[in-house]
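Annex B. Sample input.
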Amino acid sequence: MVSKVALKITQSIKLSICILKGLHNEIKDYKIDGIRY
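Annex B, continued. Sample output.
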């Protein structure tokens, strides 16, 4: 069985990856919008 600590670590890593991907997508969209206008 996976320990609770390891589970929390994996969850926090997944969360940080999701946040980084979200920021990257926002920056990408902003650049695309900047080119359009």
